[in-house]
Amino acid sequence: MKNKKLPKSIDFLSSHGLTVISLLFLMVITIIGTIDQKYIGLYQSQKIYFESIYFNITLFKAGGYVFFLPLPGGYTVLAVLFVNLILAFVFKFRWRLRTFGVVVCHIGLLLLLIGSYLTYAYSVNGHMTFAEQEKRAYFVSYTDNEIVLTETSAEGEETKSFANEYLFKGATLLAPSKKIHVEIAYFFENCDAIRNKDNLFSNQEYVLRKIAPSLETEMNSVGVYASVFNGKNLIGRYYMYQGVPVDFNYQGVHYSIYIQRRKFPVPFSLKLLKFTRELYPGTQTPKHYESKVTLSEKDRSGQNSEREILISMNRPLRHKGYTFYQSSFNQEKDQAGNTIKYYSTLAVMKNPAEEWPYFSCLLVVLGMIIHFTPKMFRFAKRQGKK
């Protein structure tokens, strides 16, 4: 309901002017992020411009100084737009039957913003890659990494993983038993391994060499140079490279530390029975490919349950909140160039708000129909009288 005596702050925050300003900033962010994507890659562009509170635009450099313009990032703009819609909904809307369609439209927009937040905060995605007859009960992130620390002793084995937020210079990682800890001295965003001819900083056979990050973040191989301590006693210094574990023994316990793409478990398993591809005639270009899998899980009675499912390019598998799409494939060849094994890659997405955009857009369309249909009939009626 419109209130002429609103405080100035509420009046501004619920104003049409703030809506227009927010939409203009979204346009600016989209344009800048799209242009810069060519130079820094999609992942970095998304992080800097869209998943940020603010970002800086360099204007010019002079006398050793950099002059820049700070602009609000995607988080800030969307938060302001959300508050603007809520306050306008409460204080500015005229709650009448003829404005019911406008109300429905705005509810759709609010749900779209809420769904966007839920997608960012709670969705995970990655891929599941396996060969025929292999089984997987997890999928792997395209971009996120983790350090896995495993202790093996007479009492058994314990494993602890540290996600992306621990991969930075100065981070401290505590082992499951808390007997040792790892201090990261240097983090490599992208690197490769070379032979350690001079035993440089470590007695390992290899050291890591920093290389320029790829624009495709999923192609980067991260690494760290870290020190391992027992209290204040130095056990050793190690280079840790993606996919190459560091193993050592200390006080009767075997330790294994390695970096890998982050793994996400799923509450069931998929086994690839057969991968099939169809090529365009006379070419090596895939026309269609599909994976026949067995889905295994526990039923309500605790018994094993299995069923065969076909996943193709336009026929995803949706189960327990996870969606599996046929994404790509790879093949292993012998020295003669003959294919001896196929690997199928399924893109995996878990998004609690997957259906929200569709429902939100339907509400917006419905609201517009409700609002404009009576106006159209009234206009046609007036025209008929002329």
UniProtKB/TrEMBL annotation:
<dbReference type="GO" id="GO:0017004">
    <property type="term" value="P:cytochrome complex assembly"/>
</dbReference>
<keyword id="KW-0201">Cytochrome c-type biogenesis</keyword>
<feature type="transmembrane region" description="Helical">
    <location>
        <begin position="74"/>
        <end position="93"/>
    </location>
</feature>
<feature type="transmembrane region" description="Helical">
    <location>
        <begin position="356"/>
        <end position="377"/>
    </location>
</feature>
<protein>
    <submittedName>
        <fullName>Cytochrome c biogenesis protein</fullName>
    </submittedName>
</protein>
<keyword id="KW-0472">Membrane</keyword>
<keyword id="KW-0812">Transmembrane</keyword>
<dbReference type="Pfam" id="PF05140">
    <property type="entry name" value="ResB"/>
</dbReference>
<dbReference type="InterPro" id="IPR007816">
    <property type="entry name" value="ResB-like_domain"/>
</dbReference>
<dbReference type="InterPro" id="IPR023494">
    <property type="entry name" value="Cyt_c_bgen_Ccs1/CcsB/ResB"/>
</dbReference>
<dbReference type="GO" id="GO:0016020">
    <property type="term" value="C:membrane"/>
</dbReference>
<feature type="transmembrane region" description="Helical">
    <location>
        <begin position="100"/>
        <end position="120"/>
    </location>
</feature>
<feature type="domain" description="ResB-like">
    <location>
        <begin position="266"/>
        <end position="333"/>
    </location>
</feature>
<feature type="transmembrane region" description="Helical">
    <location>
        <begin position="12"/>
        <end position="36"/>
    </location>
</feature>
<keyword id="KW-1133">Transmembrane helix</keyword>
